[in-house]
Specification:
Elements: E1 2-6, H1 11-22, E2 26-31, E3 47-51, H2 57-60, E4 69-72, H3 83-98, E5 105-111, H4 120-133, E6 139-144, E7 147-148, H5 153-164, E8 167-171, E9 177-178, E10 181-182, H6 183-193, E11 202-206, E12 212-213, H7 214-224, E13 230-234, H8 239-249, H9 254-264, H10 274-279, H11 286-298, H12 319-323, E14 331-338, H13 342-349, H14 362-374, E15 395-396, E16 399-405, E17 410-415, E18 421-430, E19 433-442, H15 444-469
Parallel strand pairs: 1-2, 1-4, 2-3, 4-5, 5-6, 6-11, 7-10, 8-13
Antiparallel strand pairs: 9-12, 14-19, 15-16, 16-17, 17-18, 18-19
């Protein structure tokens, strides 16, 4: 079968793609930027890659008409302030195009919307449902609450809170009930619903067997990790204070924290579980889901992470824009060293950041990350998804990977920290020499003053880093 997969570079899409390919489907992957797409499986020949912006009606016309089914996995809960309007436009363009294809089904992964009073995020999800249902193609809606899996935003926030805070003074929404579901079960529902006539034109709530408060979820995570944690809730913490609480303690962005806090005040519990019998799916418990997620992290087998999405930082636009590192009107710190073991140097470069650190004066990198967080930036808490592999589009501490070619020995990073200008960090190996360059393009006088203020630190930070990278 020919299946259209939107959101192919997203958290769910990256995990769903290999499952569809394993079933023998031909998958048409829709992405906004082809350079952000990466798949190394042997069955990649069954992938057709399309660069499509669903906000652009003309772009959508590139979708072929001979598809059998389509997954709609596009969400943007912490992008622009008017993301609800943009999501509606995107859904409308998608629906109108799919209705002109041979598709027998649209599958949409939404959020549980069983309350009369919904957050902006959940209201937007519900609005998308209504738009898709107005088309002629049968729609299957799967509504999930908190998704538990390595790399999911909810799981990473829980992990950050429990690991960092022995005692938590938390907002009262921690007493809100929800029904978490393991990422593996979400994927099983998505696969088994595909081209299943029993699911056409219907909406289903999907969740695990446990109904828990967010407080209980935190304490169960602590139990799995064998940590003693104490949580006290306060009614005086406003949504804004709660958002700041999440923002400063966890790796989440402030916009995402705000969206999550507004949603966490609403109970997300399944109304019924008829879909379990219909598709013969037996969701695992929250405790088991946590154990599986932690095993994936320990084994460095995290397939996808919310941190790699553009909404996790200030990155805007396409990678092409940032690939050509400017030279004019820029300050540049250039260094080079002869190398004797090319493979060893590349391995070090490809492991930089995250748990590995920056090889020299890590405390200064961490201090810079803390300052960035204070001023509303991403800080260094995003880390990296994989300890040894990086690809274009990945988040790497307060950088975004815009180019990564291991064979060529070339890596380009773009800074997502708060800066009075733009910054790039480049590594390139040529003729047994490692070239390292830190480029800063200032914006006005503030940018120039910033460069000269940090200039004294560059001498030993960048010099020490390249020395460590080329050590035998």
């Amino acid at each position: 079968m020919k299946i259209l997969l939107t959101g192919a570079t997203g958290y769910i899409g990256k995990r769903l793609l290999p499952l569809l390919l394993a079933q023998g489907h031909e998958v048409i992957c829709c992405v906004r930027d082809k350079k952000r797409f990466y798949y190394a499986g042997s069955n990649a020949v069954n992938i057709q890659l399309l660069e499509i912006d669903f906000l652009d009606q003309h772009s959508v016309e590139n979708i072929p008409s001979d598809i059998n089914a389509a997954y709609y996995l596009i969400h943007s809960m912490s992008g622009a302030t008017n993301y609800d309007e943009l999501e509606s436009i995107s859904a409308l363009n998608f629906k109108e195009k799919i209705n002109r294809t041979k598709a027998d089904q649209i599958i949409y992964l939404s959020g549980i919307v069983n309350e009369s009073s919904l957050s902006k995020h959940l209201s937007s999800r519900k609005a998308v449902e209504e738009i898709l249902k107005k088309g002629t193609t049968p729609v299957t809606v799967l509504r999930a609450g908190i998704i538990v899996g390595s790399g999911s935003a909810s799981f990473e926030i829980i992990r950050d809170l429990v690991n960092k805070l022995p005692i938590m003074i938390a907002p009262k929404w921690l007493n809100t009930k929800c029904q978490p579901i393991a990422i593996g079960d979400v994927l099983e529902f998505l696969i088994k619903a595909l081209l299943n006539p029993k699911t056409y034109g219907d909406s289903f709530d999907i969740g695990g067997p446990d109904i828990l408060t967010y407080k209980e979820m935190l304490l169960k995570f602590a139990e799995v990790k064998k940590l003693k944690r104490y949580i006290f809730t306060l009614p005086v913490m406003t949504p804004k204070l709660s958002s700041y609480w999440l923002y400063f303690i966890t790796s989440t962005s402030f916009k995402l924290a705000s969206a999550l806090v507004s949603s966490m005040k609403v109970e997300v519990v399944c109304r019924d579980r008829r879909i379990n019998d219909l598709l013969d799916v037996k969701p695992i418990s929250y405790y088991e889901a946590l154990q599986k997620a932690l095993i994936k992290i320990d084994e460095n087998a995290v397939v996808s992470s919310w941190k790699d999405s553009q909404i996790s930082g200030q990155f805007k636009g396409y990678l092409d824009y940032y690939l050509k590192v400017p030279k004019r009107d820029c300050f540049i710190d250039r260094r080079k060293r002869k190398i004797t073991n090319r493979e060893s140097v590349i391995a070090k470069i490809w492991s930089i950041g995250g748990e590995t650190g920056w090889y020299y004066a890590d405390w200064l990198w961490n201090l810079r990350g803390f300052i960035d967080k204070v001023f509303g930036g991403v800080g260094t808490r995003r880390g990296r998804t994989d300890r040894h592999e990086i690809h274009a589009g990945d988040a790497l501490d307060f950088w975004r990977v815009v180019y990564a070619d291991k064979q060529q020995g070339k890596l380009i990073l773009y800074a997502e920290m708060k800066l009075p200008g733009e910054a790039w960090l480049e590594f390139k190996i040529f003729n047994n020499t490692l070239y390292q360059a830190a480029t800063f393009r200032p914006k006005g006088l503030a940018g120039k003053l910033y460069w000269y203020a940090v200039l004294p630190f560059h001498g030993f930070i960048f010099n020490g880093m390249i020395n460590k990278l080329t050590d035998k």
